[in-house]
Amino acid sequence: MKPLHIGIAACSAEGAALCYRTICTEAPAVLGTHDHPEITMHTPSLGEYMDHIYRGDWAAVGAMMLASAEKLARVGADFVICPDNTIHQALPLIEARSPLPWLHIAACVAEEANARGFARLGLTGTKWLVESEVYPQKLTGRAIGYMRPHLAEREEINRIIMDELVRGVFKPEQVAYFQKVIGRLKAEGCDAVVLGCTEIPLIMNDANSPLPTLDSTRLLARAALKRAIGGIKKAA
Known about the structure:
Blueprint: E1 6-9, H1 13-26, H2 28-31, E2 39-42, H3 46-54, H4 58-74, E3 79-81, H5 91-94, E4 102-103, H6 105-115, E5 120-124, H7 127-130, H8 134-140, E6 145-147, H9 151-164, H10 172-187, E7 192-195, E8 213-215, H11 216-230
Parallel strand pairs: 1-2, 1-3, 3-4, 5-6, 5-7, 7-8
Helix pairs in contact: 1-11, 6-11
């Protein structure tokens, strides 16, 4: 008997690597020393994804996600996760045609927020993610409120993510800026903050955030691990 095979449809490297590492390092506590589910990752060029995103061509983004799912299915994955919040905007466009089921990153976050009793979440992430309905759709279904950063804050957070974090550049100034924005969201009534870019948890966490954090990267990884273990199948 073995866990289900996890497929990772990656977009940006830093967030995907954190998600992958989380699955591999947390699995042994459940499965036994050194054990983790089989994992296959497919990573197309981030540049190609970004070309489509800058043009607002979400159908093309979806086509890339579908191509990853098809490749992952061919190598035996049982389901797919995407450790990238922004491109989840395209998931509804292709999910019905996907050869494999997907876990939705915002659904994982909404479930955790509901379990912890949070009522109003601050949203952080790329400007495309924060201005989208990816999180609102999942949060409103659970009667959880949300607040978006101001426009200037969205732009600066987007710059930090796209110019620095996705390139593995980490600076104290980034932490200070996030603390400022999260502090304002707290003052305006938020009781937790969504780290809604898979790179943000590389610099922000409960220890340095003015609000409790909902780490989308690790929550997705843990949901994938739970699903893989829960769907244990007979070895071929």
